[in-house]
Each structure stands twice: as C-alpha cells, then as structure tokens.
Amino acid sequence: MARSIRNKPGLAIVNQFLISQRPGLWRSTTTRSLETLAFEEVRSSTERPYKFTAFVLHGLLGSARNWRSFSRNLASYLSNSFPSFDWRMVLVDLRNHGRSAEKIESFSPPHDMGSAAKDLADLINTQGWAWPDVILGHSMGGKVALQFTESCARGDYGESAQLPKQLWVLDSVPGIVKAESGGEVEKVLLTLQNLTTPIPSRKWLVDYMIQRGLSKSLSEWIGSNLKRTEHGTWTWVFNLEAAVQMFNSFCDRWDPDMIQKLESLASRRVYESDGKLFVHVLPNAGHWVHVDNPKGLLEIVAPRIATLA
User: Domain AB hydrolase-1, which positions (predicted)?
Assistant: First the structure.
C-alpha cells in the first residue's frame, strides 16, 4: 500500500490515486543524454526561471509525446493561476518505450519497476537536476512512480534524494496484482503480439484494432506509437516484448477490496508530517484516462498541484 511509505523528517508527501470509471507561447525541447532516458521539457515560458518541476510518466506502450497536450494544458493552468511561478514539465520516455527504446542495449535487464525507477534517479543525477516536486504516473508509470518514491524514502538513491511533495498515481493499483486474461490491457497486448510486422500503414492498424473490438480513440492512440521505417512501412516506437516483460512485473487490476482500502486510508486523520492520501474517481473514462477524458483529468489534477505555489 502506498501509505506504507515512510517520509524523511520534515517532508510530507501527498499521494493521489485516480480510478477510471466508464459511462500562450510554448517551449518544448527534446533531449536524450548518453546512457540515460530520453525526455522532453514543456514550459509555458522561457523568459523567467522555473521554480517547480513535475515529472510525467506514461503508461505501458505509451511515450512522452502522448502526454504533451495534457502537460501543456497543465502548465498553462498553473502559469495562469500563479504568473510569478513558472513550472517545468519533464515528459520521460521510460525504458523500452519511445525514443528510449532506440538503444535497448543501454538498459540492462531485468525489465521491471525497480530498474525503471532507478533509470529516473540516474537521469536526475546525470542532468544535475533538483529532485522533482511532483511525479504524475499513468498505469505502468504510476507503478514506477511508487517504486521511485519508496526507493527515495529508503535511501537507495543516496542522501541527496528527496521525496516529491505530491505523487499522482493514475489508474494503477498499488501492490502486486495478478493479471486477468479478459482485461483491457491484456487484450491490447495479445492483439499486438499477434500482429505481423512491418505494418502497412497507420490507418490499416487502426482499422485492424477496431475490428477486434477496441474503441476508435484507443486504436488511434495505439497507432500514434508507430514510426516509419526506411522502406516506407511502419513499426513500433516501443520494444513490444520488453514492454510485455514490464507489464508482467506489475499488472493492473482494480477490485472492490482494494478500492475500499484506499478510501479507508483517505478518510483517516493523520499528522501533516505523515502526508495525506486522496482517492479520485474519473467518470467517462477507461484505463487510458488521458485519451478518454483529458478535460476531466485536468480538472482533478491541476487545482491540487497549484496548492504547492
């Protein structure tokens, strides 16, 4: 459970769990450091220094670019709410995904949550950054965020490591959960594993996914993770088999007992130094919350992050 995380003296962490439920001038820079994760930065302005940093971690089969629109809207909200404080959004391509998958040899096995979290710490240290104020992780990214925070609290990344002030876990179940063959994510993975590559076109893939029962918005999002090969065909921007290994290391499944436990923890009275847990329910959304209801997600996330200013 996330509440088992121990804070360092004088630090409080706000854990936010979001459960999905069915029925200006912009500067964006892209970087990859040698032997570290690829990432890109989104800021509403470069004319003044940023004061706060938020890491945004995509989910399984996703990439940093999937969260550009949401991150821009979040930065805009925060900038408009507090014009004197600029935010920097760091959108990370986790191992085996996006541009971080271009050099798979840079990331040694095991391909699990512990390794993915350590990649973040290595990126921070390589860049010489301060530790992030906020971490927002979706699905697998939420698991990585939890593991990163727990490792920080244990001192695994050294004495300089600091806990984030807020941790957002979007539709990702804390703890170890067994996969189910009928789950939405499992269905997507099985469909992709049965595909032959190279893929003729993005439209062909979208039609193929829709014919197999996936929604149009989800199919188009999956299609956005294609890149053109030198032969004019298409292939994935992620390493599919390594991504499956990462999924098998965490899995995701909500059940009534888990939701009840989280809601019970959220209702507890705690000392401020112990941090606070909140549970939010996002309506009209499946697992891919930023695709199904990005406006509703922003309305939940942005006001609470703004309290840090």
Answer: 56-298
For residue 191, pLDDT over 50 is answered with: yes
Give the total residue count for the chain. Answer: 309
Q: Which residue has the tokens 């921070």?
A: 124
Q: Which position has the higher pLDDT, 270 or 72?
A: 72
Distance CA 146, CA 139 (A): 11
Token pair of 258 as six digits: 């888990």
99-114 tens-digit pLDDT: 998 766 668 889 999 9
Domain 39-176+254-266+280-307: CATH superfamily is Alpha/Beta hydrolase fold, catalytic domain (3.40.50.1820)
